[in-house]
Amino acid sequence: MKHPTVLVFVELPDPEFPTAGFLNNLAYPDARLVGFYHLDEDESAQEARAEYEDAFTAELQKQAERFEQRGVRTEFDLEFDSDPVETRQRIAESDDVDAVLTPGGVNTLGKVLIASRHTRNAEERMDNLLNIIDRDALISVGLIHIADPDDPEGETEGERVLNEMASILTENGIPSVQINREVRTERDVAFELRQAARNHDLLVMGETEQDAGDEIFGPVGDYIVDELDIPVLTVR
């Protein structure tokens, strides 16, 4: 059984960790739990470590043990830096993780929304996803594509993408009756994803070359978590 590695990135000193219900509905992932402390302009990493390292490390160890109790093998680390987006991206790339989780307050994992721009590496990404979340817990899987209003073929391409994604999911044992598809046309992708993600337990996005960095590891994913308090999983 494949054990994808998920980077769980939390910001200190007031981190939001995955809830017990969320952890109970995971399948076979390993976790890389990273606590990030945001340095002020006039604050050095050495000073911050001297003041906070012991307390932060104790909290991360406590959470890692909580993950382990629910069957998620976990390593943890602590980062002191000034840029959470760059730090998240650097760790994801250097550790070659399969997905990045920004935790939210949701305590269930029955309704998942998957945002798809394309189908490159879709089979591998869906395989990773279904080894991260417990497919038996799924009630519904929503598929959404946000088409560019300036692209005359945007909606047609979106329908093709979602049809292919639905086929991959059914081939992996997700009943077609549980899969919903929707193509929206809008320039403000973040707003549309926020609207679509309401009443879901998890938003899943795929990392692409054009998305890497600020759009996915920063504002879009963080915006969804901040606005709706649902977790965002970026599958790489």
Descriptive overview:
Strands 3-2-1-4-9-8-5-6-7 form a 9-stranded mixed beta sheet, sandwiched between helices. The protein has 7 helices and 9 strands; from the N terminus they run βαβαβαββαβαβαβαβ. The longest helix is centred in the N-terminal third of the chain and has 25 residues, at 45-69. It is globular. It starts with a strand and ends with a strand. It has 2 domains: 5-102, Rossmann fold (3-Layer(aba) Sandwich); 111-235, Rossmann fold (3-Layer(aba) Sandwich), CATH 3.40.50.620. Helix content is 39%, strand content 25%. Helix 6 packs parallel to helix 7. It has helices spanning 20-24, 45-69, 84-94, 122-130, 154-171, 189-197, 214-228, and strands at 5-12, 30-38, 74-81, 99-102, 111-115, 140-147, 179-185, 202-206, 232-235. The chain is of the alpha/beta class.
